[in-house]
Amino acid sequence: MTQANMTTFSSMGDFLKERMVTTDIVCPTHGCNLVSAFDREPICMECIKIEKDKLEREMIERASAEYYKKNTYNWLGMHSIFLDETLKHATFDSYQATDDETELNKQLALNIARRYYKGANNNTIFTGKAGTGKSHLSMAMLQVVNEHSDPYRKCLFVSLDELMRRIKDSFNNKQSYYTEQRMIDLLTEADLLVLDDLGAETGAVTTDRTATDFTTRTLYAIINGRMNKPTIITTNLNSKDMAKMYDSKLISRMFRGAEGHVIKFEKTNDKRRTIEF
Ligand SMILES: Nc1ncnc2c1ncn2[C@@H]1O[C@H](COP(=O)(O)OP(=O)(O)OP(=O)(O)O)[C@@H](O)[C@H]1O
Ligand SMILES: [Mg+2]
Ligand SMILES: [Zn+2]
User: Fold this and answer.
1) Per-position DSSP letters for 20-78, written without gaps between them
2) Cβ of 109 less than 6 Å from ligand 1
3) pLDDT tens digits, 46-90
4) Residue 232 belongs to a domain with what CATH number?
């Protein structure tokens, strides 16, 4: 529109009004007359308003669904802490049952995972020899729960050893993201948590009282914060070893609801041992 013809109208509103013609056609829904602007097809202003409100609502719903998914479903990929990165993609499909024990344990793990996504809140313990697939199966359980939970659940895999290392590192590095409190909050907030390789975090520091106290304190805060939420623990320790390493209150909380949910590897071969010498 040129300056010249703008001046022939007192305002933009007047200009638009001039171009809008009320027709004799009536909206069957609203009973009002349709309006034609700029000689275009007549429209009902009420219908347009309703359509605009609907689009706006849908946009808000989509945005909030995306935010919700990011804050639940995406946790597993975003916040998990791995020592062994290959575990990121561990699934039931990629777990090969090579004998009776692996076959049984794979089935047990899958059954428990199914109960988790339906809301069970007992803890599960994987125990036994190294390289038998404890971490692999626990991650596979998280993947299943993450995919099938409705509503979504916050699933999290955390290598305890690596977690403790990062927290300790944060004591001397003020820029670190992995502060003790932030990590405790993260692990407490997860709806389903894998604490991977319990016991490994104490291995190098058994003679260091402070570090052991620190480990106990951190574990305590996590386990206490998860009294009503399920935790899957993987470990090479048996219950006797655990009793030597951790205090009894902590152990009894880690074993909460774990009766019938202890998955043992006693016979399976170490899948990492491919080199003979
Ligand atoms: N049955 C299996 N089928 C396919 N891959 C397997 C199987 N068992 C183990 N693996 C693979 O072997 C590697 C070691 O397994 P995993 O880390 O789960 O062992 P682990 O029992 O947790 O050992 P550790 O006690 O040392 O932590 C992983 O890369 C895992 O994906
Ligand atoms: Mg492991
Ligand atoms: Zn209408």
Assistant:
1) EEEEEEE-TTT-PEEEEETT---B-HHHHHHHHHHHHHHHHHHHHHHHHHHTTTTHHHH
2) no
3) 999 999 999 999 999 999 999 999 999 999 999 999 999 999 999
4) 3.40.50.300
